[in-house]
Amino acid sequence: MQMPVLFMQQNAIEEAMQEEERQRDCECIQAAQQAKNNIIVYAWTQDGMEPTIYEFQEGFLFPNFFFSHDMLRKLCILSDDTAQMPPIQRYNCVLDTWMHFDVGHMVTLHDHDGGALLVKNACVKDCVDLGHHLQKLTHLSSPNIAKALPAEHKYMRAASHAKSSCPPSP
Fold first, then answer.
1. Alpha-carbon distance 150 to 122, whole Å?
2. Distance CA 81, CA 142 (A)
3. Is the pTM of this model over 0.70?
4. Using H for helix, E for strand and C for coil, what is the string for the chain?
5. Are the CB atoms for 56 and 38 separated by under 8 Å?
6. Which CA distances in Å does 88 have to 19, 75, 91, 112, 118?
7. Over the Cα atoms of the chain, what is R_g?
8. Tens of pLDDT along 50-76?
């Protein structure tokens, strides 16, 4: 006994629809993962010049960021014709100082880094707007919604309760 043709056609249509839904779900998951994978790097390559500011979303897995040759080229610290690797430094917020590092160095970002890294050619002494960028990183203006949500909830309940318990105005 064979299954009816109509059933076989409907089964094929449903399988195709399920596959399309699976593909959409997979794309949504990948997009959400990539959105989390976001680091801004400020790079000073010359004295008295504004930094190159580059936002990376690929080539690393947050919170670990690798300073590869490709990443350093994008930051204009290396060029294709660079014969010798220039000395590079990264600003360490915890120690409040510049530290040398090598290509391939991995940095693990923490909350105090603000999702950003500061790097420079070791020869650069005048990092334009360094203080401004450091201040932005240490005084992040956007609140952490996950940590602030309970307090926001409490505030809204109290405000709602206060409004409902107030007598009507004349």
1. 45
2. 41
3. no
4. CCCCHHHHHHHHHHHHHHHHHHHHHHHHHHHHHHHHCCEEEEEECCCCCCCEEEEECCCCECCEEECCHHHHHHCCCCCCCCCCCCCEEEEECCCCEEEEECCCCEEECCHHHCCEEEEEECCCCCCCCHHHHHHHHHCCCCCCHHHHHHHHHHHHHHHHHHHHHCCCCC
5. yes
6. 48, 12, 10, 22, 11
7. 26
8. 999 999 887 787 788 888 888 888 888
CB 63 within 8 A of CB 109: yes
Using an 8 Å Cβ cutoff, are 60 and 107 in contact?
no
Cβ–Cβ < 8 Å for 128, 45: no
Tens of pLDDT, residue by residue over 68-105, are 888 888 888 887 776 677 889 999 888 889 999 988 88
- Pairing mode of beta strands 116-121, 39-44: parallel
